[in-house]
histidine kinase (Paraburkholderia phytofirmans OLGA172), 687 residues
Amino acid sequence: MNPTDRTLCPALVFTPAGRDASVALALLREARAEAIVCPDLVRFSAMLSDEISCAVVTEEALRGGDLRALAAWVAAQPAWSDFPFIVLTQRRGTPDGDGQLAELSTMLGNVTFLERPFHPTTFISVVGTALRGRFRQFEARSRIEELHEGEARLHTALTAGQLGSWELDLSTSGLITSATCKAVFGRVPYADFSYGQLVASVHPDDRDRMRNAVSESYATACDFTIECRTVWPDATLHWAELRARLVRDGSRNGMRLVGVASDVTARKTTEDSLRRVNETLETKVAERTAELERAHQVVLDEIRQRERTEELLRQGQKMEMIGQITGGVAHDFNNLLMAVMGNLELLRKQIPDDPKTGRLIDGALKGAQRGAALTQRLLAFARQQDLKIEPTHLSHLIRGITDLLERSIGSQIELKLDLPDTLPLTLVDANQIELALLNLVVNARDAMPDGGTLSISVDVANSPGRDELTAGDYLCLTVSDTGKGMDAATLAKATEPFFTTKELGKGTGLGLSMIHGLALQLNGSLRLESELGRGTRASLWLPVTSQEPIAPRLTEPKPQGNPIDSIHATILVVDDDALIATSTAYLLEDMGHEVIEADSGAKALEVLKNGQKVDLLITDYSMPKMTGVQLAIAARELRPNLPILLATGYADLPQGASLDIPRLRKPYQQHQLVAEIARALRNARSD
C-alpha cells in the first residue's frame, strides 16, 4: 500500500453513542475520506497505525476509559508522525478551562476540539486540514526512507569498492573520516585522525602538491583529485588516491570538500613493475633494432614474406566470410528450387496432353535445374556442397572428357594434353573436378577469341609448407592459354564471387570462386598467374593419397515384381519450410503414399510417441531448435528400426552425428525420391 495515496489511508471513527457515527461517516465521505468505525476503546487503540490518516472520537467515549494503550501509541510515534485527532466535545470551552480536555490535549498532542453542534462545513474543513497535514507527514516519511536507502546504497558502494569517505571543512580544517578512510592512511578505526595528521602522513615530496590541489579546488570550485604517497605509522610506504567535490553551505566561508579515499598501492606497484618491464623491453627492442639495421637485406625477405602471409590470411578470412553468406543464400535457394521443381513435376502429370504446355513446363524444369546447378557452384564456393570423395587418377579422368573439352573450345583453338599414366592418386569428387576443369577451359577459350593454344597437364609437385598448403606431395592440374591475360588488379579479384570481366549475361562470376572453394574443401589450392598479352596459367593443387581406388560395385538385378515398389507406405515428412513440406507431401501422395506432415522436430517426436503408424521418416537437416540429425537420433531411440532419410544440400554434419543416415540431396526430383524411398524400405525389410 502506498501511504501517500489518499484513497488507501482511512480514518478511524470512535463515536459509540447516538447518531454521531453515521453523521461522521457521511461527512467524511463528503470530505473524500474512507473511514473505519471502531466499536470500543480497545479496538480503537489497536487499529491506530502509521497507515491511518486521522481519528474522529467523541469526548465522552474517552472519559473514564483506560487510555494507557492509546497514550503509549501516541508517545511511540516515529519522528515523522504527528497523528491528528478530532475530538467532538459537548460543551463550550477550551482545554485551558477544562482539566480533562487539557489532559486529553497533552496526551494526544495534535488534537482539534470541535464543539457540538457544529456546521457540516466546519467539520469538513477540520477534517480536510487534518488530512492535508497527515499526508504531508507521509511525504516526509517517504523522503526520509529514500534518504536512508540512498545512504545505505552509498555505504554498500563504498564498502564494495573499498572506498573510505572523508569530509574537510575548509574554514576550520575540521576533518571527518570513516574507518575505511583511516585504514588507507594506516590508522585503526577508532583512532583520532585530524587534517594535520593526514597532511603529516603524506610523503614529504608530495605534501606541497596536495596542498596546492586543495587550494585550487577552493579557488576555482573544481573537483579535487590526487594520487600521493603515504607513510604509515609503521614507516611502510603506500599509495593513496583522494577524490572530492566542493560543497557550498550558503556562503563563501561555509565550504567543504566531500569525497572518498582508496588504497592504490597494489595498482601503483603493478604499474611500476610494468614500467620497469617496458623499459627493459624498450632497451631490448633498441638492441634488436640495431641488429636488424645491420642485417637489413635479410630482414627485408622476412618482412615481405610476412606481408604476403598476412595478405593471404586476410584474403582467406574475407573468402571465408563471403563463403558463409553465399552458403546460406544457396541453401535457401535450394529450398525454393525444391518447391518449384516438385510442383512442376506434379503439374506436368495433371495437365491434359498438350504439347505446347508440356514444352513450357519442360522449359521451366530445365531452368530450375540450371538454378540447381548454380546453387551447387555457390555451395562449392562456400565449401558446403555434398562431395563424393574417392581415390582418382586425374589423367584417366581428363581423358574421359576430352571429347567434351574439344567441343567446348571449338576448332580455332589447339588443345595440347600432357597426361602421364604413371601418376599417384588424389582424393577428389570426380564430377566436381570435371566441372572445375570445364570452367577453366571455357575461361581460357573466352580469353582467345581469335584462336590460340590451350594446354592441360598433370604433374607431381611438392609444397614445402611455407604458404597456404601444408608440406607434402601434390598433383598439379594446370590449364594454360595464350590469350589476353589479366592485369594485377583483375588477377587480385579473379577468385572473388560474382566478379567477372565478361559482358553482361555471359558469365556469373562464380566459376573461379567455385574452383577456389572446391580446392580449399579438398585441402588443396587454386593458383593463378597472368600478365596482359601473355596469357593465363591456372594450377589446381590436390593432395596425393596412398589409398587404393575403390572397385566398382556391380549393380544387382532388380527382382521382378519386387513387393517394395508396390507398397503404399505411411511417411512422416518434417520440414520447417511450408513450401518444401507441401511440395514433398504432394509428390509422395502422387506416388500413392500416405503422408503425415510436421513443421518441427518436436512435433515429429509427438507423432512417434503417440504410436501412429510411420513406415519412413523424411526430415530436413537445417531446422531451428532441433536439426534433422538430432531428430533422427531421438527418433531411433523411440523406434530403433525406423527407416530415415535426411534431406539436405549441406555436406558437413556436426561432429559425433551418426553418418549411417542415408541422405537425399536437395533439390531432388520425384524419380530420385522414388529410388531413395525404395532403397530405404528395402533395407529396412532386409534388416
In short: The chain has a mean pLDDT of 80. The chain has four domains: 6-145, 161-263, 390-545, 563-686. The radius of gyration is 46 Å. The first strand starts at residue 11 and ends at 14.
